[in-house]
Amino acid sequence: MNNPRPARPKARTGGWGRILLATAAIIGLGWAGIGLDPASLNLDGWRWIVEADSPTPRLVRVFAHDGEVGAIAWSPDGSKIAAGGPLHSAVMIWEARTGALLRNLNREFGGVSAVAWSRDGSTVAAGRKFTEAARGHVAVHIWNSETGRVLQSLLGPSPLGRGDNDVFTGALSFSPDGKLIAAGHRGSVSIHDVTSGRLATVCRGHIATGKAVAFSPDGHQIATSGEYERSPVQLFDVRSGAQVRSMSGEPESPFGVAFRPDGKEIATVAFGRPNVTVWNVREGRPARALTGHPRPVYSVSYSPAGRLMASAAHAGGVIVWDSETGSRLLTLPNPEELTDVIAFSPDGRYLAVPLGRQVRVWDLSAVRRSTQK
Fold it and tell me: Taking residues 113-142, what's their average pLDDT?
């Protein structure tokens, strides 16, 4: 039986207010004076929901991909955006300021489930899904970001034909020093040496699906989704692969994790739940829950400075939060789309959000100013 479509949230501005907002958006579209063609933008369903007395975001850039987008990553200097999707093999890289397509990295097999940049921006990596046994279970490709040359084709941790080496959505991360890359698979996390391609460590245990992988800021630990309906988060030692901590709290089905940049907290989202849970890492217990999404949340991300947090739900919009107070700052509606990943720019000013075959970039400058008052 089909579920009834939920009522669309009402904007808090009147009819003239919405017209003025839309007009201002079209006039203001652009990045450093370089505009977009308003006729190319379908803004249906992207009316702004402005919280009381809150600032208004601006849509400043739209990138078009060859396939559905399910993975996004900014280069460390914020000058480029890379994106891919599970039903298309290409990783496309654009210049963020002009929107020019710089690279189309296409290996002709395996969908793209995750994208990540090294700390210095010299390399970009893609986690693969739907890999074929005949291809040798290539799980991760690493390219030189300037030349497009393939530097590494990393195999998954399971022997050929004896395990699932697909990289789960968003489950790919370079270590802070750029020497290692971790990928989440079903029941394990593989950690490779970037230079040699050697499989350095495999973290195994009661990892539910490996749907999220995050290095701690010091690079010593890996956080990943925990055992199904038991531990929401597990921490592993990067060098030994041994589990060092398991968070305790209300049982849930883990789906995504994100370290706060200071390493003191971890945010998680659980399959089928419309909230974000924030955990105290030292105590291993939940600190607070953020509620406000009408639908289950599928992704969560901290801004680089850690003051802002964004979470995205299926047909439930993207909410930007004050991570210190837990207050909701604004909501960007996302019409009937599953948003697996969202990404802050390195300076925290912009938020990239996928929408079908597009990547849409929102300017959050006014939101950042409001948290600094």
Answer: 83
